[in-house]
Structures are given as C-alpha cells and as structure tokens.
Amino acid sequence: MNALPPQPLSPLDGRYSSAVSSLAEHLSEAGLNRARVEVEVEWLIHLTNNRLFGTSPLPAATQDKLRLAYLDFGQAEIDWLAEKERVTRHDVKAVEYLVRDRLSQLELDHLAELTHFALTSEDVNSTSYALTVKRAVTTTWLPAFRGVIEKLRAMSLDMADAAMLSRTHGQPATPSTMGKEFGVFVWRLERVLARIEATEYMAKFSGATGTWSAHLAADPKIAWPNLTREFVEGPLGLTFNPLTTQIESHDWQAELYDHVKHAGAILHNLAQDVWTYISLGFFTQIPVAGATGSSTMPHKINPIKFENAEANLEIAGGLFATLAQTLVTSRMQRDLTDSTTQRNIGVAFGHSLLALTNLSGGLDQISLSRETLLKDLDGNWEVLAEAIQTVIRAEVVAGRSQISDPYALLKDLTRGHRIGAEDLAEFVAGLDIGDDAKERLTALTPATYIGLAEKVVRAKLEK
Q: Which residues pair with 28 in a beta bridge?
C-alpha cells in the first residue's frame, strides 16, 4: 500500500478548514510568531520614544518601515523563523534574530541591543498570546456567537405567540410558547456574553522572575514598572499584570475559557432541544437542493447540523476545561506545561466556532409547524388540571367553594388518563365554584393556557 501524500491530522485543518480558517490568522503558530515580532518591535520603539540610554525617537517613516516586520509578515518570514529555530532550538530567540535582521536592513544596527531588552521569553509570550487571543475572540469568535444569539432572538420574537405543549421529564406539562423557550436561551447566552465581553486580556512585562531586576541593573533611576505598564496598556492595548512570577499567571485565560465553555454548554442544551423538537415534528427541515439525508433512505432529512454542533461543543468544552485547569498552575516560578497547552487554544476555539457555524446554518434550515403544535396541544387537555385546581383553591380561600382537596380531585380525574374538551367542560360545570371562575375555565384551552409567555418574551428581548 502506497503512503498517502502529507495530510492534515486535524479535521480543523482539513475537512472543516474553510469554516475556521479565520482563527488561524491569530491562533496558529505563524499568528503567534507575528505577534511576537510585533511585541519586540513595539518595545524597541517604546524604549527609543522614551529616550533610554541616550537614544532618540525614530523618525515616523523609520518606525513605519520597522513595523513592516510584522505588518507584512508572510511566508518568507515564516520560513525564515523556521530555519532559524532549527539552529536556536528556541522560538522566541529566533524572533529576536528576525528583528535584529530587520534593524540591520534599515541600517539601525546601533539599536540592535535594544531588541528583547531586559525581557524574558514569557514577557513576549504573555503579551503575544493576549494579543492573539483577544483578536481571535473579538474579530471572529464573538461575531459568530453574537450572530447566533441575534438569530435566536429574531426566532424567539417571531414565535412568541406560538403555543406549544411543554414536556417536563418528557411528559405533557403546562403549555408555553416556542418563542418563550427560545427566549430562555437568548437570556442565558446574553449573560455569558457580557462576561466574555468584559474579559481582561492580561500581560506581564517584568523580566525573568517578575522583579524588573535586569531593568534596574541597567538603569536604577527609571521607574520601570510605570514604563512597562505604559507599553502594555498603550501601544498593545492590553491589561498590565504587575505581580507575577516569570510567567503571567493565566488567570484571565482560565476565566475566559470557563465562560466560553459555559456558553458552549448552553448551546449544547439548545442543540439537543431543537433536535428533539424536530423529531416531534414541531419543526420541519427545509430541504437543501442536491443534499442527501441518508445513503439508503431517500426520504430522510437528518438534523446533522445540530448533531455536528453538539459533538463539536463537547470537544471544545473538554479542551477549554483542560486549558482552564492546566494554565493556572506552574511549579514555583516557572515550568513549561503552559507552552504546549497554549498551542491548543486555537483548536478549542476552532471546534467552538465550527459548532456556532453549524448552529447558525441549522437554525436557517428549520421552519416552525404551528399546525403540529396545535394538534399536540389538542391531544392533551389534561394539562389544564393545574389551572382548574389552582382556580378552585382561590375560590376556597375567597369563600366561594367548599371543595376540601382540589389537588386530589384533579389528580383522580386526570392522572394517567386522556381526557378531552367535553370531559373537562362537564367536570367544570359540576364544580362548587363561582360563575366567573367557571366561565374563565370553560373558555380555557391548552392553546390559550400560556400565561404571560408572549409578553415576557417581548418585554425582555425586543430592542
């Protein structure tokens, strides 16, 4: 058997690459290295802008040319770094040499020793990961997440009045509306969205063990914590972590991944519910021209987008849980467990983004069957037992009824029995309650027994 030509091992880089490729712009090895170059270049510019060690600010045109090292970062730079790392056996050191090379090309060799000045690799890495994760989340993942929420909001409002039979424990229960049920997911997801949007993308920039020791040795008169804070929060737009070991503690990452995992768990619940509603016939699936549902059963339209989303959310959740658990622990001042762990951030977000893409597409391919909902409701008049026994209780309290145990009365009538409109009408007519109460109950149907479902949805979700 001949060996296959080189193939992607991960389905994210093969079968699903088109759905997640935008994440690779930031969360790939190349994206990480580009951010490292950016940090090194901007740190050098920051030092010269502050006139350290007798330097002067570089002319704007020269700064622009130097910034091309990361702004024009492409295959040539990727190959250059790969070749250099084969010699250095150190990824950040290879980046340092790339910046030195660009300085030489610009005849700025006199500034070469300001490259990677007083830094440890984790100063560069923590800022680079903060930059790449922030950009991936804000430019790619969050828009997809918000898109699903807004799609759910529109569907919720559209279906706000669509009465449906609820199923608690899988059994017929007090009716709701499909719009209210979708609205619950919108409400839950928006709470998590707010937490994700409030993420602090943190970086440290304080040297080998977080003490600015080398910085002070070079010039004890400079307020290095202030200078480094200005750099992290200014040009880089991140949040500065002033108290760390050699590494940034990764707590912000754990918080972010826990929140994204939580969002995924809610979406997983949604995918399962919609799948179930489809199986009950509450939603019909819109055929896609040319698509095959089953290799042998031509009639089938399988809810594969919801199943795909469900599986990818489980994979993403497992990875996010591992990231959140592993990254917050580092032996004493530093170990390298975070190095290989963080290289899987993109994999976790890739499966999450793939799930969002499938959910969005799946929601576009379903149509509510109001007729099926009404038929289901009409076959379950016993769910009005709750309303009847509650009205009786109110009548007893008001002195308009002498019924001793309303709950037991309705339990005997309805538990384990199928009853219809005529059965309930006859039962209500014989009750010892006031005429107004009888009139309200007689007018009630399973389809109208939805309480404030529609009003709550419109009050909470309309913008």
A: none
C-alpha to C-alpha distance for 460 and 157, rounded to whole angstroms: 10
- Which residues are identified as catalytic? 169, 294
What is the enclosing helix (H) or strand (E) of 41? helix 29-49
Read off the tokens for 321: 């849980």
* Contact yes or no for 382/172 (Cβ under 8 A): yes
The DSSP call for residue 114 is: G
> How far apart are the C-alpha atoms of 116 and 159, rounded to whole Å?
58
pLDDT in tens, 330-348: 888 888 787 888 899 999 9
Write the pLDDT tens digit of every residue in 29-83. 999 999 999 999 999 999 999 999 999 999 999 999 999 999 999 999 999 999 9
250 phi/psi in degrees, rounded to 5: 70, 10
Burial category of 296 from C-beta neighbours within 10 Å (exposed 0-12, middle 13-18, buried 19 and up): exposed
Residue 460 CB partners (closer than 8 Å, separation 6+): 183, 187
Please report which helix (H) or strand (E) contains residue 240, including its range. Answer: strand 239-240
The C-alpha atoms of residue 242 and residue 203 are separated, in whole angstroms, by 9
- Quote the tokens at residue 246: 């050699």
Q: What single letter denotes the amino acid at residue 246? A: Q
Residue pair 172/416 in contact (Cβ under 8 Å)? The answer is no
Q: What is the dihedral of CA 263, 264, 270, 274, to 10 degrees?
A: 150
The CATH number linked to 364 is 1.20.200.10
| Radius of gyration for the alpha carbons in the chain, expressed in angstroms and rounded | 31
pLDDT of 286: 84
Strand locations in 264-349 (E): 283-285
- The reported pTM is 0.93
DSSP helix/strand/coil, 136:
helix
**Alpha-carbon distance values, 201 to 25, 116, 204, 328, 398 (Å):** 18, 22, 11, 15, 60
Are 181 and 236 found together in one domain? yes
CA angle 298, 300, 301 (to 5 degrees): 130
What does the block give as tokens for 167? 């199923």
- Choosing from 370, 392, 427, the residue where a domain stops is 370
- If asked whether residues 44 and 140 sit together in one domain, one would say no
Residue for token digits 């060996």? Answer: 3
d(CA 463, CA 457): 11
Q: Quote the domain boundaries for residue 234.
A: 125-370
Cα 428 → chain centroid: 50
Phi, psi (degrees; rounded to nearest 5) at 283: -115, 140
CA distance linking residue 58 with residue 125, whole number of Å: 25
Q: What is the pLDDT of residues 302-333, one digit of tens each?
A: 889 999 999 999 999 999 999 999 988 888 88
